[in-house]
Structures are given as structure tokens and as C-alpha cells.
Amino acid sequence: LREAEKNAEEDIQAIAKFSKNFLPIFFNVFVAADPTKRNEIPPVIRAFSVIADKDTLNGFFKTVLKRLLEAITEASGQDEDGPDDAYEKQVKYTELALAMVEGLDTSAATMLNRAAKPMLISTDPRVQKKAYKLMYELLHHHSEECIRSIDEVLESLKDGLGVCVPAAKRNRLKCLQETVLVLQQDPSTENLKKISWLISEIILATKEQNMKTRTLAYDLLVSIGHTFANTDAERMVGPEDPEGLLHTYYVMVVGGMAGATPHMISASVTAVARLLFEFPDAFVASAPQLLPPVL
Hints:
Blueprint: H1 2-16, H2 19-32, H3 41-51, H4 54-76, H5 85-100, H6 106-116, H7 125-141, H8 143-148, H9 150-159, H10 169-183, H11 189-194, H12 196-205, H13 211-234, H14 245-255, H15 262-278, H16 280-283, H17 287-290
């Protein structure tokens, strides 16, 4: 087994030496290809990006980033009903950037994150969907950097809250999931307060028409609960302790039942029911005190 691993590592190193030859070919083929026929190319670029020399990859990345910024600038200077070329360029170069995310260093990931921010509020559904997918990949593969700039990440998500198009909602929810996971690396009441508005959006997502989006929202609600329950256990805080993270989280979700719209109230009822099912011992005793005021 060790010999096989050694041989595999040697093979990877041998292939990596040709990255500077192959990457420009793949980039050019991708850019020239018809949008409906280029899906096979990004996985190849991704594979080379992971094993390529960082200096080599950064050189290609800067070229892609420059063209992406040019496309963003071009799109921002035209009317919504203007030519489609600028939006198509954004999609194209975002897909290229996506293929390189896993292999980027910290500084490159930071530059890409800032470049993608305007696309989160784009009026073009394709651009917005790709932008949220890019943000998700950055959060997933560069969590340490995201922790350092978490306030900037939260600001970007807030800016896109009211303008998210239906086509991008699932990718946005995945971004919320990764953001919560990043914050959960340092679970505290302060960080829980930071994501209170995220929790409201996750609750509302349980009523989305798309089944995958609804399922993801429920899974995320439960995942957050388990993380806080584990943290409370480590700190020897009881599940019904008002100082506990799980109890604070439950109070936040229950608070949605006093929402201003029937849609929010309905979503909160289903969210509370899901948490009661998942954490019966923690919430059954406190439910009689918490629920009547909002019913």
C-alpha cells in the first residue's frame, strides 16, 4: 500500500510539471467553447490547479481575475436591457475562477472574494447564481481566511438579502450554511447573535418551492442545533440552561412565530416542530414557557 501511494505521488509530481503547458490550452479551449459544450473542461482545470505550482497557478489566476473585473465593469456601465455579452463574460470567467479556487493561496482567494461581491447583487440570474456558487467554494476551501474576514462576508450576504433571484436561492443557502460552519469554529453567544438574521432566512427557506432548498434548510437548522448542543456539553451547560447556546438558539427560532407575516409565522412553526423532534429532552420542558406568549 505504501509503495502504491509513493508511486501515485511520483506520478502526480510528474504530471504537475506540465501544468504550465496544459493550463493555457484548457483555458483557451474553455473560452472558445460553446457554453453548452464546455462542462467537461472545468473538472480538468480543477485537477491541475490542485497539483500545480502556486506561482504558475497564480499567474493564470491573475489573467482570469483581470478579465472577470473587466466584464464586471463593462456590465455595470450598461442598461439592464443592453447586450448580453458582458453578462456571459462574467459567467465564463467566474466558472474559470471556480475551477481554480481549491488551489489558490490566501491572498488570491481574498482578491477573488472581493471581486465577486458586486456579482451577488447582479440583476442577471446567471451571474448571481455563479457568484453565490463561487462564494460557497471560497467559504468551503478557505475557511481560515473567511474567519479573519467574517464581518466582510456577512456584509456581502446582507447586501444580497433583498435582491436574491429564485435561481440563486439554493446556492445562497449553501453559503449561509458554510458561514454558519465558519462561525461555529468559535461558537459563542456573540457569534450566535451575529447570525440571528441568517437564522431567520434559513427558517423562511423551509417554505421554498424547491424541494432540495427546503431539505437543505431543515438540515441546516438541525446541524446548527447539534453544534450548539455539543458546545454546551463541553462547557457542562444544561440543555435547558438560559445561558446555554442551544436554549438561546431555540428562543430565536420560537421568536419567528411572532413574525409580522403569515409566511414567517408558518415557516417558524415548522422549524420549531423540527427542532422539538430532534431535541425533545432539551426543549420539551421549556416549550410550555416559551410558546404561549407567541401563540
